Amino acid sequence: MTMLSRRTVVGSGLVLAAAGAAGYSLWPRMGDYQATVEQQRRLPAGDATVQELVRMATLAANGHNTQPWRFRLDGQNVSILPDPSRRTAVVDPDDHHLFASLGCATENLVIAAAALGRHGEVVIGPGADPKIDIALSSAQPGRQDLFQAIPLRQSTRSIYDGQPVSAADLARLEAAAREEGVTVLIFTDAADRDAILDFVVAGNSAQMDDPAFVQELADWIRFSSARAVETGDGLFAACSGNPVMPEWIGRRMFPLVFRKDSENDKYRAQIRSSAGVAVFIGAAADPQHWIRVGRSFQRFALEATALGIRTAHVNQPVEVSQVRAEFARWLGNPEVRPDLVVRFGRAPALPMSLRRPVSAVLA
Predict the structure, then answer these.
(1) Are 346 and 160 in contact (CB under 8 A)?
(2) pLDDT digits (tens, 9 = 90+) for 72-94
(3) CATH fold of 13-355, please?
(4) Where are the beta strands (DSSP E) in 180-245?
(5) Which H/E stretch holds residue 16?
(6) Residue 137 — φ and ψ, nearest 5°?
(7) Beta strands in 160-275 (DSSP E)
(8) What dihedral angle (degrees, nearest 10) is formed by the CA atoms of 6, 191, 168, 299?
(9) Beta bridge partners of 132
(10) How confident is residue 28, by pLDDT bands cut at 50, 70 and 90?
(11) pTM metric for this prediction
(12) Angle at 2 (CA atoms; ends 85, 299), nearest 5 degrees
C-alpha cells in the first residue's frame, strides 16, 4: 500500500497479451522514473534537516498513493495535517484510511528521527479533524534496521512463495505492532485464511459492482512512467507487476479488462500464496485511533521489510460496511470496527512507487 491501496490496476492476461501485441513490455525504458525513485528513496545522513525527515515521512504507506498529508514546520516542531483535497470519498467516505495514512507518516518520521539522533514526542490532537504534533529534541542515535527499511518497504501486490513465516519472526512482527489502543490479530491457519478470503471476495464483488468505486480507482491509476513522474502520486501499473503503456491505451483498456471474476480469482491466488493475514483493530472508531492503527501498521510493515517479508493490503472486508459488520462478528467482537487487513509472506520486490516532492506537501 502504497499501504492502504491494494488494487492490481490491470490484472488480466488480456492486458498482457494486448500490450505485447502493441509492442509494450512489462518493464520498458523507465530511466527517468527509476532515477526519481532513487533520488526520493535515498537515506539521509546524520545531520539531516527537518525537511529530510519529512521526505522519509512521505515514503509511508497511504491509500491509493494519494499522499493525503500536509506538513507544517516550526523550527524543530513538525505538524502533520490531513489534506482534504486528496480524499477518496467513495472507498473512504469517513476518512478512515486518510487518518491511518497520517499515522503511517508519523511513524516513519519518528523512526527516521530516532535513528539520526533526535527524539520525537508525538501528540495527537482532539476532535474530528485532528493534527499530529511532533516535537523533536536531541537524543542518542537509536535503532537503525527499521530506519533502513523505510525506503525498501512497499505494498507488494503479487503472488508470494507460499512458505510459512517462522514463530520467531511472527513474534517480532507482533512486538513491532504493539500500540496502545490497537489490537493486532495474526492468522496463519489455512482455514482462517480461506475464511478471510471469503470476506475479501464479498467486499471486492460489492466494490466492483459500484461504478463510482471503479471510476475513483481509475482516476488514481498511472499507466505510463511519464504520467507517474509528472504527478508523483497514484497507482503506477508497474508497481503492481502490470504492463506499462501510454495513458490513452491504458484508459481505453481498463474498463474492458478490470472485471469482477478476474479480480476475485487474483485475490484467491494471492491470499492462498501468503503465509498469513494480520487484522488491525482500533479500540474506538475515531480519527485518533485510526492514526494509532496507522502507526502500528507502519512498524509492522517496516519490521517485516527488515525480515525480508512482504506485505500487501486486502482491505475490502473493512471498506464495505455490511461486509465489515459480518467480518467483525467472525473475528468474535461485533462491537468493534476492524481497520486494516494485511497479507504477508515472501516474494521478490516490485518497482517502487513515487512520492511528490517535499515542497509540494509543506503547508
Answers:
(1) yes
(2) 999 999 999 999 999 999 999 99
(3) NADH Oxidase (3.40.109)
(4) 182-187, 221-222, 235-236
(5) helix 13-22
(6) -145, 160
(7) 182-187, 221-222, 235-236
(8) 20
(9) 80, 124
(10) low
(11) 0.93
(12) 110
